[in-house]
Amino acid sequence: MAELFNALRTLQGTQNAVFGNSDASSSDAFTATPLTYDNDADAKAALSQGTVIVDRTHWTRLEVTGDDRLSFLHNQTTQDFKTRQPGQGCLAVVVTAAARIIDLTFAAIASDSVLMLASPEMGDRLASWFDRYIFPMDRVTFTDHTNTSATFTLLGSTSHATLEQLGFSDVGDMAPYDHQSATINGYTVRAIAYSGLARPGYTLWTDAENAAPLWKALTDIGAVPAGETLWDIWRIEDGVPKQDNELTDSYNPLEAGLWQAVSINKGCYIGQEIIARLNTYDGVQQCLYGVQLDSLQPPGTKLINAKGDRAGTITSSQNTGDGAIALAYIRRKQCEVGASFAVTAEQTGETGTIADIPFSVRSNPADKDKPQLD
Global pTM? Predict the structure, then answer.
């Protein structure tokens, strides 16, 4: 199915895209993710006062159908699906029985299906995981549309105006996670009021045949392309966890700060007992925070406190051009914004400073001012 994306990659090539994983002209055009368009200054400016477009077609897209789809997802993820209505959406974490993270997903509830956006290359793993819990009488089917559909994200203060110029209506009035559809270029395009980051924007889902025409239409009306490198910088700035970095079976959703993806009050689901116990007894021992670094340090780098004790571990890092930033799981007793740490005992003189990040909920769930979790 990779040939369906050749036109998109060719178009992006004319916009100075530099591709990762493969060349845009190869048969593996699906995996040829644009890393940059050699326009970082323009993209950063558009992020604050315009519209940026990011290609997320390499992300996993699943469709869940069948009369039992909502009850099945309700029982197999951390989120409450039974109260969701068509046109709404939610974040949901798929966890193991030990409440360890498999993946963070976004689900858009439609009238006859649920559309799920998951991390790249997670289709087979999620399908295999869900399949083990589908019983013969369950009326639920998972279909992987990753190779036959496309996803773009629009970011920036004018992203709603860009969508309305494209043909959508009143998208600026949509509640977070809500979605609506419009016909663009003869194809259905679903716009979701969720950027994937902790900043305004929309995620678009359409057929693969419409990928190049939709990308062209959006860039023709002023959306500025940004590649995977800038996306990763913005992700770290916003504290959004990533598969294989922060989203692994070494951590649980509460450690990752994914309270907005967890329903504490719903009934049983896989991993529920452990998550409920962590919440009830204030058992979260480490939290995901941002770190400002003296210089770029790779994931796995240890943070050491003033006493020489291990305080945390860097899981993601990028050089922004204005300095090095990172995400790190840091022990709760050390989680004071502004606190400084040495970066491993071997690298004398290198330091990091804890910075807050907007995506994760920071309130201790045992505190009286804990956030509304549903």
Answer: 0.92
